[in-house]
Amino acid sequence: MSSSAIAIRYAKALLNIASEQKQVEPYADELAKVASVLKSEDMLRLLLDSPTFPLEKKQAILTDLSGLLELSDGMRNFLGLILEKGRIVYIPQIEQDYRKFADNLSGVVRAKITSASKLTKARSEAIQKGLEKQTGKQVVLNVQVDKSLIGGLQAEMSGKLFDGSVKTQLKRIAETLAKG
User: Fold this and answer.
1) What stretches of 50-123 adopt beta strand conformation (E)?
2) 8 A C-beta contact, residue 18 and residue 24
């Protein structure tokens, strides 16, 4: 079974449990915390994924981590199962898939906006309202600044990139001039 199929299966299972318990967003936040810790702490990830490190010690480490992160019992049980099955390495992908499925369930679309300069609150809200009108769904913006764009902005949503940056426009002009 491919790694993405494994992650999708676990993400869907967790979403089903979260839906029944009406804990979709809290589980998403908790899973994101765990994924973040595993991403930033290489030694922890390697220990939890090691086939030679005893399962009992891995479970003790996971219990301590769950306590520090103040995870719910449901998330602790899920992580225990993931650890027992040797799938801890899939947590980042499970988290991404879970977020995607949870957003789809709740009618939310996530958009990444990259601007050449910091956007005002009014401008961000105008972009959000425009995207919500276009998609018919609630839009959650993640706004970033990239001065290399020179001017304008880029919007990435649902796997599509809308590029209105000056950098891209100049690149297109240069390509046209180079072709003659």
Assistant:
1) 108-115
2) yes
- 103 in Cβ contact with 114 (< 8 Å): no
Counting beta carbons within 10 angstroms of the beta carbon of residue 47, is it exposed (0 to 12), middle (13 to 18) or buried (19 or more)? middle
- Give SS3 for 86: coil
pTM (2 decimals)?
A: 0.77
Q: How far is CA 85 from its chain centroid?
A: 23
Where exactly are the structural domains of the chain?
Answer: 3-104, 108-179
CA–CA distance, 97 with 61 (Å, rounded to integer): 25
The CATH topology of domain 3-104 is Peroxidase; domain 1 (1.10.520)
Residue-wise pLDDT for 44-90, tens only, equals 999 999 999 999 999 999 999 999 999 999 999 999 999 999 999 99
Q: Which residues contact 85 (CB under 8 A, 6 or more apart)?
A: none
Give the Cα separation of 167 and 116 in Å (integer).
10
For 123-142, what is each residue's pLDDT tens digit?
999 999 999 999 899 999 99
Residue 58 tokens, joined: 């891995």
Write down the residue that tokens 């649902």 correspond to.
158
Half-sphere exposure of 28 (CA within 13 A, CB side): 18
